[in-house]
Every structure is written in C-alpha cells, then in structure tokens.
Amino acid sequence: MLEASLAPPLLSRAFSWENDGSWISALTLALTIALELWCLRAVLELSARRPWLYAQAVALNLLNNCLLGPLAYEFVQRFLSPPLPPLQRAISTCLVLLGHAVGYYAAHRLMHTRAMYWIHTFHHKFHMVIPSAANAVSLAEFTIAYMAPFVLGCALLQPDRASLFMAVSFISLNNLLIHTPKLEQLSTLLPWWAVSTADHANHHRKQTTHYAAPTISVDRLLAAVFDKN
C-alpha cells in the first residue's frame, strides 16, 4: 500500500484502464494475435526459419505496446484541450493523422541514412511482412518514429481526448494492416494517397521506395507537388 502511494502519478495512471493508451495497447495486441492466426502460414514459415527473430518480435510487441505506448499516451494528456465541437474534432483528428504521417516519414527517411540505420536494422530483418512485425522495432525506433510524432503533434495541435483516441486507433490499425501479407493484393484498390500493404511490402523487399507509413502516402503527396514530369 505504501509502495503504491509513493508511485509517481504518471506511472500509476499510465498502466490503469483510465488511460486510453492502455485500451489501445490491449486492442492492438488482440488484433495482432488475430491477424497472425489469419496469416498463420507466413508466420509459421518465418518462425521455423528464424525462431529467434520471431521470439524477439513477440518480446518487442509486448514491451513497446504494454510499456512505452501507455507511458507516452499518458504523457501527452497534459497537452489535450477540452472537448471540441464535432466539426473541430473531425478537423483535429485529421490534423493529428497528417502530422503523424509527416513526422513518421521524416524519421523513417532519417533512419535509412548510413549514420542512423542502426535504429532501423531490426525491423528490416523482416524481409517478408507479418502482422507482429508492425511493432517489432527497436526501442529507439519506437520512441523516435512511433511516439515522438504524437508527442510533438499533441503539443502543437492540442487535440481533445476523442480526437487523439480516434487518430491513434486508426494509425495503430493501419500499421497492422500494412504488415498483413494476405491484404497485399486487395490493398492495391486503395486511393492513391493512402499507404497500402503492397507499398509497405515493397519497401521491406527493396528498402529504397515507399517510405511513408502507415496511413497517408507522403511519398506520393511530395511527388504530386514537386515532380515536374
């Protein structure tokens, strides 16, 4: 009882169900398991060829989703605004999505430079995507590319609780979907501005294209603006 009373408020709230981040983490893990079962053949193939890699992926999913994710989510609560009217909430949600897409793209391009690739090396051990690879990233990558865009976005945009919950849930869902091999062919039907499973699978195979993830294709938006041909 004494230990609980001495626990820092951030820690005590971060790992309670009062923190929306705990719910998103739990739902993300549940959906990861469901998609892994759906793609069982690919999962079994990888785990048979590289069992240690798959074991590390499972461990990083638990660590990133159950520890770092809820902590970061609780931290950004201080930046949230009071409840917004419906239209402002929709705009705020879209701005958080766009901000995260740009932030992730910038971090991802940086991690593909010679100096910073060490951060991203583990994720690219998955030449073939599987759902658990979505959150199988180093702690440095999870912090810089996954969480930092949310923290900066919330500090600048100050969404309300519902806006943040919807944006993070949508991003987490899409992160799993673009790592689900059974969706590769179907995903080609998505609109041009959306990141598809096919795009991201191609990135894992080549590592020199389709850096955007997991929602808005910043690659294509930049090409549309700056490509003169």
TrEMBL record:
Keywords tagged on the record: Membrane, Transmembrane, Transmembrane helix
Which Pfam families does its entry note? FA_hydroxylase
- Residue span(s) of domain Fatty acid hydroxylase: 94-222
Q: What is the first-listed, main subcellular location in coarse terms?
A: membrane
Q: Which residues cross the membrane?
A: 20-40, 52-75, 87-107, 128-149, 161-178
Checking InterPro entries in the record gives: Fatty_acid_hydroxylase (IPR006694), Sterol_Desaturase_Related (IPR050307)
Q: Where in the cell is it found?
A: Membrane
Q: What is this protein identified as?
A: Fatty acid hydroxylase domain-containing protein
Classification lineage: Eukaryota, Sar, Stramenopiles, Ochrophyta, Bolidophyceae
